[in-house]
Write a structure and sequence with these properties.
Length: about 150
Amino acid sequence: MLEFHTIDLKRDRNRILQFRRNSFIESFGDCSSFDKNEYLTWIAGKVREFPDGFVGVWDQNRLIGQVECSIRMHEGERIGYVHLFYLISEKRSMGLGVRLHEYALHFFQKHHVKEFHLRVSPNNSRALEFYKKMQMKYCGSELDGKVIRMKGKV
């Protein structure tokens, strides 16, 4: 059974760095643009602001993934935002991504938003397929085509 616990940087630091690096590699082919110190500073602030939105995903006392969600403004509207869904490779294609998605939806419901967005690399076909399966819609290309913005209903 999966459990979701607020990220503890002392306990989880090395694993979440590994997860974020892997997400860069899977999305963009390398992690050369990943700045470890910038990420750790950013995540420490986000954990303080949204402790239930920045969580590790645990399976039988093993950290197997991560969810990063917050609330932000976009085009004058208050929306939910998924910064990261991540599962280790051996736990993919087992239906667990749906559990991460459901966790995010509950977070957004708690914060009274009706819509959420995320960005995904156009090269990440596996993620794109999953987001479409979760009924998310294409909003457009951003960052000179490096990412696609998608939105979903809460």
